[in-house]
Predict the 3D structure of the following.
Amino acid sequence: MDTKVRLDKYLWAIRIFKTRSLATAAIDDGKVKWNGNSVKPSRNVALGDRYDIRTPTRKWTIEVVGIIGNRVPYEEAITKYVDQTSDEDKIIIKPLTSGFYTGKRISKTGRPTKKQRRDLGEYLGDAPEGD
């Protein structure tokens, strides 16, 4: 068991972030707080520390109960922290995609068929071609 582990490495090892660089970027952006204050990625993790973490999909509040420096299987990783997240924050946020349906044709699906062109022309009030 390691006695000194950087915060970014710890968050990567317990599988909060997929890569260590994502963990470092989140810490640098102020999305990881310790006692309400922003921290640096190089901060050493200690037993009993509580961190508030915002990821793109949800919020976490964790308390450190074990220190590890290497990535381990999920079943072992979850034993190294206690999830103290409130029930409201445990709801997974699904990010909105930029491709939501607007009534237009789906992009990059090829040219419209003849029937689709006729239907579109009728909808827009254009006279059908060839009549």
Notes: The chain is about 25% helix and 15% strand. Residues 7-83 form a domain with the Structural Genomics Hypothetical 15.5 Kd Protein In mrcA-pckA Intergenic Region; Chain A fold (CATH 3.10.290.10). The radius of gyration is 24 Å. The mean pLDDT is 84.
